[in-house]
Amino acid sequence: MRTHAMPLGLRAAALLAAGVLLVTIGPSLPAAAQATGGTFTLPIIDNARMWPVTGGLPNILVNKVLFSTLVKYDAKTLAPVGDLAERWTLADDRLTWTFNLRRNVTWHDGQPFTARDVKFTIERLWLNPQVPFFQRANVGEITRVDIVDDYTVRIVTRSPFATLPVMLGYLANILPEHILGRYTIDQIRNPVDFLRNPIGTGPFRFGEVVLGSHVRLVAYDRYFLGRPKLDAVVFRVVADIEQQLAQLQTGQLDLMIIEPHQVPLVQRMPNVAVIDAPQVNYTFVGFNNRIEPFTDRKVRQALTHAVDRKIILDKIYLGKGRLATGPINPLVGWAYTDKVHQFPYNKTLAERLLEETGWAKGPDGIRRKGGAPLRIAIDIDRGNPVREQTAVVVRQAWRDIGVDAEVRISEFNALLSRIRSQPNPLQSWSLWYITPPEADIIGYYHSRGTLNEFGYSNPELDRLLEDGRATFDQKARARIYQQAQKFMAWDAPVIFLVYPHEIQAVSKRIQGWAAIGYRDALTHMVGVSAAR
Amino acid sequence: MLRYLIRRLLQTVVLLVVVSLVVFALVTQAPGGPSILLDRNMGAEEIARMRAILGLDQPLLVQYVRWLVEVLRGHLGFSYQVGLPVLDIIRQMLPNTLILSAAALVLSLVVAIPAGILSAARPYTPVDHTVTFLCFFGISIPVFWFGLMLIVLFSIVLGWLPPGGMRTIGGPASPLDVARHLILPAIVLGAANMALFARYTRSSTMAVLRADYVRTARSKGLAERAVLYRHAFRNALITIVTVVGLQLPRLVGGAAITETVFAWPGMGSLAVRAAFERDYPMIMGITLVISTVVVFSNLFVDLIYVYLDPRIRYE
């Protein structure tokens, strides 16, 4: 009935639309085309909180443009380069860093940016136990900040911390002391006045926010690297992906992140280009290393050999990425190595490894050990086609070697909450990590790592990761991390799947957009322009 | 009448407390937790600290009582996601939803009532069959699909209307601009109600048309038009008003799917995001506002009966 009824419905709708508000109908023009220097519009899925002490993707994206960091990442190499800091040096004690700040920086209210802002942000916000700073794990090594003069600060760390400059560029925005310095702790926790009129040092200042609709940031004329070419950056709240696609096609949006299966559709849009942007990330199938059967390395290796990751890359990611060899992304070129133990698809070897560990096939084809079947549940979050398809492929691969595997799908929040609970009740799960452009993976894989959701613990790797963090000579660090990668590849604490590209659909009228992950590209907005 | 009103208002207060308690229990027991605690960069220590700051480390009953006390003081708390007072957010989003819902309601009534009367006046004729067919179409069509089809046709293929949002960003806000953005979501939201109202109008008008007093009116030689509109339709209105009254809460609650499909910044899309993000204060605030409207719109409908049918009395 629906098939026949549809034209009637559409006709009725057309008549109604024409009848009710005929005068309002006209050619649909993108708003951006009317701006003098152009507007760049991108989607966020929820209202943003312009308060970089709190996480969440919408907040992070907006805050990247509104605020600055001491350090940011080069648009091509992702190496740390100065942002608010011009340069930095390390003292002989290997604990004291001196950061020389730019002198021509002003806050969006015209006040000068000084060393006091840095000290305030780090000591009163990042390190203050009464303030919930979501990136504290990255900067927890800092013990204090000393002001040398208005444009020089000394940052002292508890132990040698080679990663400090990189971490100061990762979601670590500096906030204004002259405004927030007089806030009480309750006001810092609920900074309503600041949220209504946020003041940063970024290339775009706050313009307007219409809840549920958009945040509009406008070019800051006195930005320290010169006035941005664009007049404005708009973050539109669009939760629905189909609506994002429609807005992209009609020119209301200039950028969106798409899934591999959407590439053919977007390639047919004449006004949009598809960019494969490399990003510091990896996808994985995690094992709970604390429980059986994952405590046995051979089982982990068997489960890794059983999965044809090339098929996953070619068919699910449509080739948009690279097979992962470990937790360090090739973009971190100085430390990355692929000269590690590879896990090519090898069902025979996988079965042999399981046999060696005592998991023998029963009459029903399911492997058993001491009477207990080898049963593994793979948990994933609902709604992401890539992860859903990957989980199905992995389940089948494991079933093929005699594992009674099943896929369990739950909401993202519920999944993450279960992974984070102590002890983690899950066996295996498929997710991803986006990390700073650094080889320091201590948080994820050290026995005491704050983000070690895998329950992975190996004293040998712990030592390597500690050495890597405390070594400042890059060549020596590279050797340590290459050793760590070799060790991890062999030990297979998780199945490293793919280093996926971020597939960006970008309006062809946008120029100067850095072809890197859009979170980092947003810190290079000053050179972006939009053709009319 | 006054005693009746006082009794109903007291019942309302009790009902609102019960509703808020049930919703609080449901949202806090749902698997997962507030997204603000689930950032992938946050360690266990940071999560525990934030839970304590938000008061989520307290027993549920304590959390609920704290919320209730704040409500009595006129505060609905701060949204976990946006950081602003929940009441401010609702105050900003509510008018957007009212614009959309009112447009959809007017559109559906303007189309549905004449169609329903026409259908009732000429039952089992091709006109009636056509209206019935369109009604079933309107009721059964999935909202998201209908919305997407309209976007494809009017925004992408024809390029006449914007696919989503409420106004052109960066340009001057004008009623005309909002109207252009309003057309498609209003049609989609109105379609289901349109069908429902038309069916109710048809059936109640047909029932009245069979009543003795209508026969008497006809036998007195009144014109069919006068019989239909002056006698039959007015009495049929009782049913229609009830059905419209039941839809009133949607004026405030918004239509989650329509608002999400069209990126309309209203209460419906706000509620959906709040649920996804487990923004407890936001969910509770929206619930409280919507339940209050539901209860009062029901009361309003009951009072309208007195005006429409003088035989109805409340003691």
Write the layout of secondary structure elements.
The complex is a heterodimer of chains A (532) and B (315).
Chain A: H1 2-20, E1 39-44, H2 57-66, E2 71-73, E3 80-82, E4 85-90, E5 96-101, H3 115-126, H4 136-139, E6 142-149, E7 152-157, H5 164-167, H6 177-180, H7 185-189, H8 192-196, E8 204-210, E9 214-219, E10 232-237, H9 241-249, E11 255-258, H10 263-267, E12 272-277, E13 281-287, H11 297-305, H12 309-316, E14 321-323, H13 347-356, E15 360-361, E16 367-369, E17 372-373, E18 375-381, H14 385-400, E19 404-410, H15 412-420, E20 428-434, H16 442-445, H17 459-470, H18 474-491, E21 494-500, E22 502-507, E23 510-511, H19 518-521, E24 529-530
Parallel strand pairs in A: 1-10, 18-19, 18-20
Antiparallel strand pairs in A: 2-3, 4-5, 5-7, 6-7, 8-9, 9-10, 11-22, 12-22, 13-20, 13-21, 14-21, 15-16, 16-17, 23-24
Helix pairs in contact in A: 11-13, 17-18
Chain B: H1 2-29, H2 44-54, H3 60-72, H4 86-121, H5 126-140, H6 143-157, H7 175-209, H8 212-219, H9 224-253, H10 256-261, H11 267-277, H12 280-308
Structure overview:
The complex is a heterodimer of chains A (532) and B (315). Chain A has 532 residues and is an alpha+beta fold. Helices cover 31% and strands 23% of the residues of chain A. Chain A has 19 helices and 24 strands. In chain A, the strands form seven sheets. Chain A has a six-stranded mixed beta sheet with strand order 14-21-13-20-18-19. A four-stranded mixed beta sheet of chain A has the order 1-10-9-8, with helices on one face. In chain A, strand 18 (375-381), helix 14 (385-400) and strand 19 (404-410) form a beta-alpha-beta unit. In chain A, helix 11 (297-305) packs antiparallel against helix 13. Chain B is mainly alpha-helical and 315 residues long. Chain B contains twelve helices and no strands. The model of chain B has no long low-confidence stretch (mean pLDDT 87). At the A-B interface, helix 1, helix 4, helix 8, strand 10 and helix 9 of A face helix 2, helix 4, helix 5, helix 6 and helix 7 of B.
